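Appendix B. One record, verbatim.
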Amino acid sequence: MLKRLFATRKRPYVPGINRPETIRVDLSGNILTLQMPPHSYYGGFPGEDPPPRINIYNPSQYFDDGSNLSEWQREGKAVFYFMRRRWAFYGPPWRTRPYGTISFGIGVWRYDALPEGMSCFNPEHFEQVCLRNLWYSCLAFPDMGKYLTPLHWRARQESGATWFYFERHRDFSQDEEAPPEFMHAQRDCYLRIPLDDRYGLDLNFRYLGYAPIKYCLANMNALRDAVLDSIQLELSATAKERLAEAKRKWPDAHASEHRDPEPWIYPKWRDGNEGEDEFVILEPGSPPPKLTP
């Protein structure tokens, strides 16, 4: 309680930040372990701890994007999230609401749109999957605003495979009025990990930040990095065979070590009227990236 009594925007109080919990999940023989602070949220909503074992090949747990979206918004991906947490950054006790929060989730996705002859264990193919997913998370939902992405792109070699870290930030450069300072601390951070030819892990951090942003980002990035640095994945025997097969098939495949934000042009649109799609495109923007073997 003394730590919270002296909490400030520069040094906020995060419950349990120095007592991280170890999470271990068996994903069809792929053993994921990581450490993170316990769930904390001022609204009292509970976090979601993962089950000890998950069959990633069970189709009944996935939600695809083919049922409630227009065809141009359908990425061809199915996903389910098995763990969600939120971390609150508190001030002193008399301030009941936190300065800001990080929402965190871990999910498994199955990339049905990946053509035959491609594999997420090929770093060039996996990079294409990540970029295509970013297009669909941004341009396919134009009412959510415009984004700069990917930012802070990093390729990470772990367990013989290539993982990708990148971020998505709101782009306010074309707004008529400058947003409040705290809006510049709203961002999404992703780590993508291949599990099989068409399967992968999505670890997502979503910041609801505060001002001054230099204090906010220093604190939120430190928590994020502590979680990211703790992640370990031991691939299953089957996954190791698929990884070895991909390396034999594409011995020269490599990932981009750096990427600039994509120069995508957003579509011009209006809200749909009764009987129309949710969005009516007036002028098309950039097309989604193609998946090329």
